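Late entry, evening session. Most of the bench is empty. Finally got around to the prediction I had been postponing all week. Sequence below, unchanged from the version circulated by S.P.
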Amino acid sequence: MWNRFEAAGVALAAISVDPVENNRAMVDKLLLPFPLLSDRDGVVIREWDVFNQVENDIAKPAIFGIGRDGTISYSYIGLDYTDRPPADELFRGLEEVTADGSR
């Protein structure tokens, strides 16, 4: 679906609690076309309220659509690692983020 993100003018970044080395290996293995950042201490996942209280040291799967002004126009927080929004729902949500043309 990378082409759909590009066509929508959406920039992506992922955040993981895994160490930088693990993230680098994942990017290389999967040929990810976006950065995978490391939040080893869980600072961001706690601030964004996606810390998994049941399974320590991991985040709930989450997607945030953030406009250039810092406003969160779309969010999806899953229950477990398999819980992702359907593609059409995700792109409808991202349209709200880019609706002002500020991509």
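Two things to note before I forget:
Residues 4 and 58 are 28 Å apart (CA to CA).
The chain is about 35% helix and 15% strand.
Will write this up properly tomorrow.
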